[in-house]
Amino acid sequence: MAAELNSPPPPYLDDGWNVIVGLGNPGSEYALHRHNIGFQCIDALAALQAIPVTRKRFKGLVGEGRIAGRRVALLKPQTFMNDSGASVILASHWYKADPQNIIVVYDDLDLPFGRLRVRPGGGSGGH
């Protein structure tokens, strides 16, 4: 799968920024909590793509790199989950990322644990 992620982008894609946000709560006491699945996904993606997510910016931790030839910013807001919008807004404005180029990964209390759903838009997921 890593080879696919690193292949060059199709020529019709622009080179604008994509922001991938993993939601969670800061602090070691929350590290393995269900709400931190967003942080865990960002950590796994960052390790897979060798993108360090260590720079403190946008009220969070961020790392920049390329995935499938596209510029990406990986973001872990360091606010509590219900206040993460402030971090996402700061990052999306800085990178001039269009809304369709922002992916937010979080646990959805409306889904059984271990179930995944991908959709453009949606509700609060029980938060």
Q: How many alpha or pi helices? A: 3
Major sheet summary line: 5 strands, mixed
Report low-confidence residues grouped into runs of 5 or more: none
Q: Give, in order, the helices and strands.
A: HEHEEEHE
Count of strand segments = 5
| Arrangement of strands in the largest sheet | 2-3-4-1-5
Determine the strand fraction and express it as a percent band. 15-25%
Percent helix among the residues? 10-25%
Gyration radius, in Å: 14 Å
In round numbers, the mean pLDDT is 85
The N- to C-terminal Cα distance equals 32 Å
Please identify the structural class as seen in this structure. alpha/beta
Principal-axes shape call? globular
Description of the structure:
This protein has 127 residues and is α/β, with parallel strands linked by helices. It is 22% helix and 22% strand. The protein is built from three helices and five strands, in the order H-E-H-E-E-E-H-E. It has helices at residues 2-5, 37-49, 85-95, and strands at 18-22, 55-57, 60-67, 70-77, 102-105. Strands 2-3-4-1-5 form a five-stranded mixed beta sheet, sandwiched between helices. A hairpin with a 2-residue loop joins strand 3 (60-67) and strand 4 (70-77). The radius of gyration is 14 Å and the shape is globular. The mean pLDDT is 85.
